Amino acid sequence: MAPAAYRRYMEELRPCVVQISGGEPLMREDVVEIVRQIKGGTKLPYTILVSNWSLMTEQKYLELREAGVDQFSVSLDFPDGRHDDFRGYPGLYGHLEDLIPRLARLGHDDIVLNSCITSENLGEITAIADNARAWGVNLCYSAYSPRRTGCRDYFPGSPEQLVRLNAELDRLEARRDKTNWIVNAPATLEATRRYFANGGTPGCTAGMRFLVVTASGALQPCSMQFQRYRLEDRERMIREFTRTNRCDECYVSIRSYLDKSFPQLLWENVSGFLALK
Ligand SMILES: C[S@@+](CC[C@H](N)C(=O)[O-])C[C@H]1O[C@@H](n2cnc3c(N)ncnc32)[C@H](O)[C@@H]1O
Prior knowledge:
By secondary structure, the chain is an alpha/beta fold. The chain has a single domain, classed as Aldolase class I (TIM Barrel, Alpha-Beta Barrel). The protein contains 12 helices and 7 strands. It has a 5-stranded parallel beta sheet. It has a two-stranded antiparallel sheet with strand order 6-7. Helix 3 (58-67) links the parallel strand 2 (46-51) and strand 3. The model has no long low-confidence stretch (mean pLDDT 95).
């Protein structure tokens, strides 16, 4: 879609949060204009750009901020050069190591590393958190889904892997402090443990609480469900897909935020501001 076409989707869907992802969104030379169209000169929707940052520069970061990106979500799978091997992208970790601390020092507090937990980086969960801290940015964990790749090898579901996963997550919980640098709520990481232990998480509300607008303008309930609908057919998508959906095959962070009830979201996000203790 051309950037201007995104305005109509904003007017029809009226989302409070938009995540621009891919594929790799920075490969689109008009991504800044797309952000402008999504924001329409207002504060909402809260807009997150999810990217591997291979093409990010200081100038692009500032342009995207100015256009209205509220949060930059940067993928990081390993706290060192193994990130390059895992991603098949030589030099990527060095690029992030140079750029991210520099941009963090500008003080906008809008960079969050996004780390997808797999069987390969299971032992690195706390090391990745330390990496985020050293770079002066926040960190969000997500859980690997074989549904996206068709490959179960990276799913840490064996008894031995689950023991390692739980030990790492215990260590991580001990590192939490008031700064909220680990942005997943404790309840979300508990649910992530259960997702890996049970091999899935039922109760997905894809299509209703969240949906995907593809680059060609179709609606999909989720990035891993390929039934496509026109913008006008959103209600039909909910009737046909969401009401009968039994897929339990992911616990990616979009889902982990949006499957929660409103009272739970309120509690997790607001209780820290209340003096209950
Ligand atoms: C699909 S990518 C797209 C944006 C961009 N190309 C990137 O790499 O960040 C968005 C996020 O999904 C994560 N991801 C990739 N494959 C996944 C899978 N099978 N299960 C869960 N998350 C996955 C990536 O690590 C990345 O943080």
